[in-house]
Design brief:
single chain, alpha/beta, globular
């Protein structure tokens, strides 16, 4: 299956990274959904010799030839200067996403996304909390799960982009069961783990210290995990988050389930920043993304690392291969 790449915020480093990746050999065909003129201008600025090939359907693609970049055209709404945000182009960013989502829902492409700038999209008067929530709404699914992965570690989240004060109220038994079910299924279908072992973090320090530091573990998390264990699933926890990220636990685990964003992701990003991938589980299509932001100060300089985008591409191809094998098993 070909990969559709949305470079994200045009004033950021997304276009630079896509152009850099066009120089490399990949596991299969891929194409960008973007403004060809913007990409050509950025390639000239970066001194990259890239041949842009306009396409109108993934069916036109063959295996990727290094030095070429197939582009399905979507036009900018306003001129774009690297490093300078323009709310007028927020609608362009979302149009590239919408085109990619339509192709993915039609099973014509998997989706790889570059970094967007949430602030400038909201400044344009468009409510937007992030890729994950946007994809969930567009796909019309009940539950998606945000998971970041790097070599030797996968971390999924029960809650994503919430203020810390809102997290405890969002941790419910139903939410834990739905998120764990999506994670468990994805580990089997997309990552080749026939019997996943998942480590589950507690919410409170020391996983509640037997109720002395909070009762969510006793009253919500443990009962939810016990119910899922009746299905034969291998779930370990709730564990104290300050001690579960060590080889003693991780060496036998396929993934960690953290309760909130800044509980699980600092460890993963410390371990693999620049070589990690953001994956949305639970969608009817494959979606991976970079693990970083728009880095406006690096746009157009040539100094931005494309390591995370390389991992996002290779992970999407690997997931597509696992999913194909699983569906034919």
């Amino acid at each position: 299956m070909p990969l559709a790449i949305t470079p994200g915020e045009p004033a950021g480093i997304g276009p630079d990274l896509v152009l850099k990746q066009a120089l490399n050999r990949h596991d299969g065909p891929w194409f960008a959904i973007a403004d060809p003129g913007m990409l050509a201008s950025r390639a000239t600025l970066l001194g990259l010799d890239i041949t842009l090939q306009e396409v109108h359907s993934p069916a036109e693609l063959t295996s990727h030839a290094p030095g070429t970049l197939p582009v399905l055209p979507v036009q900018l709404r306003a001129p774009c200067e690297p490093g300078v945000l323009n709310p007028a182009n927020a609608a362009y960013v979302l149009e590239t996403l919408d085109v990619a989502i339509d192709l993915a829902l039609a099973n014509r492409a998997a989706l790889v996304t570059g970094p967007v700038h949430k602030g400038v999209i909201n400044e344009a008067g468009i409510p937007f909390t992030g890729h994950t929530e946007y994809l969930e709404t567009k796909a019309g699914v009940e539950q998606v799960v945000m998971m970041l992965a790097t070599e030797g570690l996968r971390v999924a989240l029960v809650t994503t982009h919430l203020p810390l004060s809102a997290v405890p109220g969002a941790i419910t038994a139903d939410k834990i069961k739905r998120v764990t079910a999506v994670l468990h299924a994805a580990l089997i279908q997309d990552f080749g783990c026939p019997a996943p072992h998942i480590l589950v973090a507690g919410l409170n320090p020391h996983a509640g210290e037997g109720g002395h530091l909070g009762r969510e573990e006793i009253e919500i998390i443990e009962p939810a995990l016990d119910e899922l264990r009746t299905l034969g699933w291998s779930l370990e926890g709730p564990l104290p988050a300050d001690t579960l990220f060590q080889p003693h636990y991780l060496d036998r685990a396929d993934a960690v389930l953290a309760m909130y964003h800044d509980q699980g992701l600092p460890v993963l990003k410390y371990k693999g920043f620049g070589a990690a991938v953001n994956i949305t589980l639970g969608l009817p299509f494959i979606r991976t993304s970079v693990d970083h932001g728009t880095a406006l100060d690096l746009a157009g300089t040539g100094r931005a690392s494309d390591g995370s985008l390389a991992v996002a591409l290779s992970t999407a191809f690997t997931m597509a291969n696992h999913r194909s094998q699983h569906s034919h098993a």
